[in-house]
Amino acid sequence: MKKVTVIVAMLAAVFVLGACGTKKEAATEKEEKKEIKIACNQVSENSLKAAKKSMEAEGYKPEFVVFSNNIEALQAVQDGNVDASFAQHEPFVKSFNKQKGGELAMMTPHVYYTGIGLYSTKHDKIDQLPDGAQIAIMNDAMNRDNSLLMMQDAGLIKLTDEKKSGFTALDIVENPKNFNFVEIEQAQTVRSLEDLDAATCFFTFMFNSGENYKDYLIRDQHATDFPISLIVKDENKDKAWAKDINNAFLTKESKKGINDHFKGVFTFYD
Question: Which family does the UniProt entry place this protein in (predicted)?
């Protein structure tokens, strides 16, 4: 009986020590990971600035690294040159993983989403687009797909029934007005409005260019399927620092700062 008591006591001690060790490791991890480099673009940098105080309140020292290209930003996370990224939506990240062999994950809870619209500086209504109109669409796989689906939803074109996603201009089976689709890098679509009849643009890029993002001819109908939150390497998604930095965007102060700057461009999930 005495031997059993000793064994139980030893197991209890091991459990307590293990629990203490786990807590100590979590605390140590949080203490050690103070400096966080986050990739962003010129638009999302403003969201990071709005959340900076909330990050600092948790003891972190964030550094924002601005990239002009979303692929380069995600590659920097994959290569370990930065700790995280905040700019790209989840389908874009999944596409990156598939195309580039990435191992990136998007943190939850998701922070917010935005939308895309079809804009024109030459035509005020969708039915004013002429036959053979030149229309810019985004050239990356996920946003090209979203652009074409938006135009199908509006009845402008019809896509093949043989697949559900990954559409390109080659999948258009009906194009009554013979629109000519020109693929352009997403950050350049706003500039293309000067030369083309219309362009699919993110609300964010329209806003950042000083344009009225609400002045679209049509807009996407599935914006909530494109969530944005902190992006990290898959091996880091359960780390305390990744959770803390992502949650920093969801504080009352951060949300107010984001809404004050962007005037409704982003919609928070909660």
Answer: Belongs to the NlpA lipoprotein family.
pLDDT tens profile 21-74: 554 444 444 457 899 999 999 899 999 999 999 999 999 999 999 998 899 999
Structure tokens at 121: 């500086």
As a whole number of angstroms, the distance between CA 48 and CA 60 comes to 13
Q: Kindly list the strands in the beta sheet with 231-233, ordered across the sheet, starting from the edge strand earlier in the chain.
A: 61-66, 35-40, 84-85, 231-233, 104-106
| Under 8 Å between Cβ of 65 and 85 | no
What is the reported pTM? 0.83
- The top-level CATH class assigned to 35-114+226-268 is alpha beta
Q: Where are the domains of the chain?
A: 35-114+226-268, 116-222
Token output for 152: 């199908």
**DSSP β-ladder status, 231-233 and 104-106:** antiparallel
CATH-assigned architecture of domain 116-222: 3-Layer(aba) Sandwich (3.40)
